[in-house]
Design brief:
Order of helices and strands: EEEEEEEEEEEEEEEEEEHHEEHEEEEEE
Number of helices: 3
Helix content: under 10%
CATH architecture of the largest domain: Alpha-Beta Complex
Oligomer: single chain
Largest sheet: 6 strands, mixed
Strand content: 25-35%
Distance between the termini: 53 Å
CATH class of the largest domain: Alpha Beta
Number of strands: 26
CATH superfamily of the largest domain: paralog of FGE (formylglycine-generating enzyme)
CATH topology of the largest domain: paralog of FGE (formylglycine-generating enzyme)
Structural class: mainly beta
Radius of gyration: 27 Å
Length: 483
């Protein structure tokens, strides 16, 4: 069975269908497309697969030897049974000296509606999260030639180049290969679909300590298209997107509390500078939670108003996993907060926040209008998942509290644009970090005085200088032990 792509130019062979034995033999190039990527259809049966690592769509553009588009097809390939996919191309003078086939695997979530050169509707995938492969093949003059090309997930974010020479990613060892190479004669013995290991959850080796949780390693897409335009400045937009492989780590279940700080001060472990306890006459500073080493009134509240250096030093005094704590990186924070590849808008899912779902929009200075009842900070963990709040609560899938509200959390790296060198060192980043300078350190998450619209986990924020604010606190992260 054959379905014409463009009459007399290209045909697609439907998987599993046999060509008629009575049809006259014609020269034909058969291309078999396989992949090691995971597909969306695996998610129901294998929760260890990161949704961000899956694909569900394949776009195939057929080009002539001058890179002019002859035709294209877009396929839904969301199930493992869809792979491998094969199609045939019949020789034609329209191609010139060779046919070039541009093959892209992606998730439709990361594509925009587009229009092909012939006016047909299609999907235009984002290059930074697309597995891209270009092949260039002389057309056979007789017989049927079958070649297999495998889309390697290691090539995600490495677009093909149509200059001179042509360049394409073949695999992790050939990120800038020749499109004429890397093809295998014949078809695969078995499909490689779903074998890319970094897509799978990696458990922690360390046992979490008290009020610490394991954040398993895995894969996710850093950034978000839906939050574009909501950043405080254009330098801190949530795009471009970045594929990221994360190692497992441990994370504090709760934000660093006053009680935890008092313990370190009274034991003599911390001898640094702390904010002077505020008085009620101080407009905003009255909400600073530190009242002194001997005052336990605020022990359950998150520490705020401390300098960046103090937050770093306090994490360095506590232990977990492979050693002492550090402020989490921006990548660690978003990975944990958004469900490790689930792309959640909020810790509880995608439902809009309410006053019961997180510590948000609470009264502070008299001149700042708010909508939720209550004044100032709440104890950490005050918003567990609750049927009374439509099942919402400020708790992640790994049981980490208060990442949407309470206090904005200081990060261990700078808040730099996602176009900065520290975010663009490779197409797929591994445990990325932008070294902190204290000039404009990163913060993530909203706070008790922030409006409900600021609770989107993808939003990026920053604070200039080293001084702490009543709306900012922190939690600590810990490296996992070496296997």
């Amino acid at each position: 069975m054959r379905t014409a792509w463009a009459a007399g130019v290209a045909t697609i062979l439907v998987a599993g269908a046999a060509c008629s034995s009575t049809a006259p033999a014609r020269p034909q190039l058969v291309i078999v497309v396989d992949t090691d990527a995971h597909v969306v259809g695996e998610l129901d049966s294998n929760p260890a697969v990161s949704p961000d690592a899956t694909i569900d769509t394949l776009r195939v553009d057929v080009l002539d030897d001058q890179n002019n588009e002859i035709d294209l097809r877009t396929f839904v390939v969301a199930d493992t049974a869809s792979w491998p996919l094969s199609f045939g191309i019949e020789p034609s003078s329209a191609y010139g000296s060779e046919v070039r086939v541009w093959i892209r695997g992606f998730r439709a979530l990361f594509a925009a509606p587009g229009t092909a050169a012939n006016g047909a509707a299609t999907l235009d995938p984002l290059p930074e999260v697309t597995i891209d492969r270009l092949v260039a093949i002389p057309l056979p003059s007789s017989g049927v030639e079958q070649l297999t090309v495998t889309l390697q997930t290691d090539c995600m974010g490495t677009p093909s180049s149509f200059g001179t020479p042509l360049i394409t990613c073949i695999d992790a060892g050939q990120l800038a290969g020749d499109p004429h190479t890397g093809l295998v004669t014949g078809g695969p013995a078995a499909s490689s679909v779903g074998t890319w290991a970094p897509a799978l959850e990696v458990p922690c080796n360390a046992t979490p300590g008290a009020n610490q949780v394991c954040i398993p390693g895995g894969f996710f897409i850093l950034g978000d298209l839906n939050a574009v335009g909501d950043a405080p400045t254009t330098d801190f937009e949530t795009v471009p997107l970045h594929p990221v492989i994360m190692s497992p780590f441990l994370l504090d279940q709760y934000e660093f509390t006053v009680g935890r700080l008092r313990t370190l001060v009274n034991s003599g472990a911390f001898k640094g500078t702390l904010p002077t306890p505020a008085t009620p006459s101080d407009s905003y500073d009255q909400f600073c939670t530190w009242l002194g080493a001997n005052d336990a009134t605020h022990d359950d509240l998150p520490v705020n108003c401390v300098s960046y250096a103090t937050a770093q030093a306090l994490c360095g005094l506590v232990t977990g996993g492979a050693g002492h704590g550090v402020l989490p990186t921006e990548a660690q924070w978003e990975y944990a907060a958004r469900g490790r590849g689930q792309r959640l808008w909020y810790p509880w899912g995608d439902m809009d926040p309410q006053c019961c779902s997180a510590s948000l929009d609470r009264a502070g200075p008299p001149d700042v209008p708010t909508t939720c009842t209550g004044t100032g900070l709440e104890p950490v963990g005050s918003h567990p998942l609750s049927p009374a709040c439509a099942g919402m609560g400020d708790v992640t899938r790994d049981n980490v509290f208060d990442m949407a509200g309470s206090v904005s959390e200081v990060l261990g790296d700078d808040e730099q644009a996602f176009t900065a060198p520290c975010w663009t060192g490779a197409a797929i980043l591994t445990d990325p970090v932008c070294q902190a300078t204290n000039a404009a350190y990163g913060q993530r998450g909203s706070n008790w005085n922030g409006g409900e619209a600021t609770a989107l986990l993808a939003l990026r924020n920053y604070a200039a200088g080293a001084a702490g604010q009543p709306t900012a606190g922190f939690r600590c992260a810990y490296a996992d032990t070496t296997p």
